[in-house]
Design brief:
The complex is a heterodimer of chains A (about 475) and B (about 200). With about 475 residues, chain A is α/β, with parallel strands linked by helices. Chain A has helices spanning about 5-10, 40-45, 75-90, 110-115, 145-155, 180-190, 205-210, 215-220, 235-245, 255-260, 310-325, 350-360, 380-385, 390-395, 445-455, and strands at about 15, 25, 30, 55-60, 95-100, 125, 140-145, 155-160, 165-170, 200-205, 230, 275-280, 285-290, 295-300, 340-345, 370-375, 400, 420-425, 440-445. In chain A, strand 13 and strand 14 (about 295-300) form a beta hairpin. The mean pLDDT of chain A is about 95. Chain B has one domain (about 10-195): Aconitase, domain 4 (Alpha-Beta Barrel). Chain B is built from 8 helices and 8 strands; from the N terminus they run E-E-H-H-E-H-E-H-E-H-E-E-E-H-H-H. In chain B, the strands form 2 sheets. A 4-stranded antiparallel β-sheet of chain B has the order 1-6-7-8, with no helix packed on it. A 4-stranded parallel β-sheet of chain B has the order 2-3-4-5. The chains are: A alpha/beta (about 475), B alpha/beta (about 200). Chains A and B meet through strand 1, helix 2, helix 3, helix 5 and strand 8 of A and helix 4, helix 6, helix 7 and helix 8 of B. Iron/sulfur cluster binds next to loops of chain A.
Chain lengths: ~475, ~200
């Protein structure tokens, strides 16, 4: 029997399997940040242990950092203590830290790929659920809790049960204006926010093959929103071209032998998937969420479901979500007034996202009563944007280009959306209070977010595409 | 670091009949700034619990504020713990006095985080879950880890649940994964020198 891509990588990383129990999985790369690591460092110290393989760990500060005036000390005391604790822990344990002020600092899932730390065939973990992003390179990458961070610190291993295998095939050409964010929101609308729980998901098909690495990362990033353990895409020439020459990617002869290995990373023809989902790219519209989990998404031109046909059990949580959102069942979402636009997060803050938005808004201006934040995923993205003059385009459009970090994705740092306000956001979660207590989030692609910035309302981007 | 041993949990329960409760609801991100594992319980379900983010204004209708509901068992709708990997969610639940969570479906990372902190996630059928929700506030539930059963004491209704045998051993004996992983360090070093 053939193996899936996931199984090939999994099998190569098994140290040992416990009878009737989980397997001991070896971890190649461990990424850490300030929020989910302090208790793990404390745990190691309490046990009197050393970090087993500090050279396989990379740290950054992203969740809790301000995105303005990063040269100044962090104002909020608890945030500052957390970031300082990370610095002290990395120094004490000899861990590479790309913290505030470092030219490589940024969101952990943006810097891993852009530095070539993320590589095909690896096992990668981080105390953050969107670690699934790195699967775009053909790696097994998943989020872990702090106790598991401690396990990896102590032994470079985790106890894991093998997930089931799912393949989602997307084939054909996308309609104009439809981006990878729309693909993944469409998948979520079909299979729901728990549709892939217990599975590793491989994305395949011609549409996926034709996506850039940035776009593939957007898709894999949101695997966790379906409940999946991880998402992955077989590496190919697009992957290798992206990686070639990256700071920590193999070089010279090492590159040649790495390529040989990476080229074996695909699902065999006779590999068995527990479930397969087939999607025709032509069916995918530009998407937006209307509720309080990412599965509650729909075509931007569509109507919110009506509660009259739902069974009693689903109805209660649907009505709760609609009340929170201040949106009427059965209503249109196009035309909904927007107060904030957030273009950022590990889902859509890469240079390609910024270029796309800049191209679209060049020579135009935002609506008067919206606030627009563009938050680059990393220092390198920020730098590149400045070199390409993207900062000037944003300035002219009234978009504020801020400094790298998770920003308004999670309502933890200073960037929060006020209660009751509507934010169209390129991030990945529309949970109640995710962007700040009482904040109302509509998830969409960077183009749809940019279109809303120009009109102050939810807008179908195709209606704005022809500049006059 | 051994955890508390778990075997039989007999208690009243707190019902939270809502599906897709994500970890941002269990504990909002702005309360993740701690650098220790303690003190998260007071912010459990923070935004559902208080008006205007004010501890002096508990929302009377929210179940944690209803005095007749209390106990060591939290019973919640399907897909409990989806979203972020924050272990703070499990810490908050433990810190608030719960040692078991019952649902018809758990998100993966939450389930692991709970197990790693000695909080037992118990998965029952949707029908049985609804039966529990129909009980009144002084009904007792008994969870036996050894027998892998959950029983509604008053009615005698019982259902068995699955738990990985390795994890069961760990919980019954208070072992944790690090103890085990450290004990096979030689295998790990061996793997590093001769990868599979
Ligand atoms: S950008 Fe948002 S989703 Fe991504 S790592 Fe930061 S907080 Fe998590």
């Amino acid at each position: 029997m053939g193996k899936t891509l996931f199984e090939k990588i999994w099998d190569q990383h098994i140290v040992k399997t416990i009878t009737d129990g989980p397997s001991v999985l070896y971890i190649d790369k461990h990424l850490i940040h300030e929020v989910t690591s302090p208790q793990a460092f404390a745990g190691i110290e309490k046990r009197g242990l050393q970090i087993f393989r500090p050279e396989q760990i990379v740290a950054t500060a992203d969740h809790n950092v301000p995105t303005l005036n990063q040269h100044l000390p962090i104002k909020e005391e608890l945030s500052r203590v957390q970031v300082d604790t990370l610095i002290a822990n990395c120094t004490n344990h000899n861990i590479s830290l790309y913290g505030l002020g470092h030219p490589y600092q940024g969101i952990v899932h943006v810097i891993g790929p852009e530095l070539g730390i993320t590589q095909p065939g690896m096992t990668i973990v981080c105390g953050d659920s969107h670690t699934s992003t790195h699967g775009a390179f053909g790696a097994i990458a998943f989020g872990i809790g702090t106790s598991e961070v401690e396990m990896v610190f102590a032994t470079q291993c985790l106890l894991q049960t093998k997930p089931k295998q799912m393949r989602i095939n997307v084939d054909g050409d996308l309609k104009p204006g439809v981006l990878s964010k729309d693909i993944v929101l469409y998948i979520l609308s079909k299979i729901s926010a728990s549709g892939a729980t217990g599975f590793a998901v491989e994305y395949a098909g011609s549409t996926i093959r034709n996506l850039s690495m940035e776009a593939r990362m957007t898709v894999c990033n949101m695997s966790i929103e379906m409940g999946a353990r991880c998402g992955l895409i077989a590496p190919d020439d697009t992957t290798f071209e992206y990686m070639h020459g990256k700071k920590f990617a193999p070089a010279g002869l090492d590159w040649v032998s790495a390529l040989q290995k990476w080229e074996t990373l695909y699902s065999d023809d006779n590999a068995v998937f527990d479930e397969e989902v087939n999607i025709d790219a032509a069916d995918i519209p530009t998407m937006i969420t209307y509720g309080t989990n990412p599965g509650m998404s729909m075509a931007i031109n569509g109507l919110v479901p009506s509660d009259t046909t739902m069974d009693e059990k689903d109805r209660a949580s649907f009505i709760k979500a609609m009340n929170y959102m201040g949106i009427k069942p059965g209503a249109a979402i196009k035309g909904q007034k927007i107060d904030y636009v957030f273009i950022g997060s590990c889902t859509n803050s890469r240079i390609e996202d910024l270029r796309l938005v800049a191209d679209f808004v060049r020579g135009r201006h935002k609506a008067d009563d919206v606030e627009v934040w563009v938050v680059p995923g990393s220092k390198q993205v920020e730098q590149q944007a400045i070199e390409e003059g993207i900062d000037k385009i944003f300035e002219a459009a009234g978009f504020q280009l801020r400094q790298p970090g998770c920003s308004a994705c999670l309502g933890m740092n200073e960037d929060k959306i006020p209660a009751g306000k509507y934010c169209i956001s390129t991030s990945n979660r529309n949970f109640e209070g995710r962007q700040g207590a009482g904040a109302r989030t509509l998830l969409a692609s960077p183009l749809s977010a940019a279109a809303a910035a120009l009109t102050g309302r939810v807008t179908d981007v195709s209606e704005l595409s022809n500049k006059n | 670091m051994s955890k508390n041993k778990i075997d039989i949990i007999q208690s009243t329960f707190v019902p939270l009949n809502i599906e897709n409760i994500d970890t941002d609801q269990i504990i909002p991100a702005r309360f993740l700034k701690g650098t220790t594992r303690d003190g998260f319980g007071k912010n459990l379900f923070r935004d559902w619990r208080y008006e205007d983010d004010d501890e002096l204004k508990p929302k009377a209708s929210f179940v944690l504020n209803v005095p007749s509901y209390h106990g060591k068992i939290l019973v919640a709708g399907a897909n409990f713990g989806c979203g972020s990997s924050r272990e703070h969610a499990a810490w908050a639940i433990l810190d608030a006095g719960f040692t078991a969570v019952v649902s018809s479906f758990f998100a993966d990372i939450f389930k692991n985080n709970a197990l790693n902190n000695g909080v037992l996630p118990v998965t029952v059928s949707e029908a049985f879950l609804q039966k529990i929700f129909m009980q009144n506030s002084n009904a007792l539930l008994t969870i036996s880890l050894e027998k892998q059963t959950l029983t509604i004491d008053g009615t005698g209704d019982s259902e068995s649940f699955y738990i990985n045998p390795y994890k069961k051993e760990c919980l019954l004996n208070g072992y944790d994964d690090i103890d085990y992983l450290l004990s096979i360090k030689e295998d790990i070093i061996n793997y590093e020198t001769h990868p599979a």
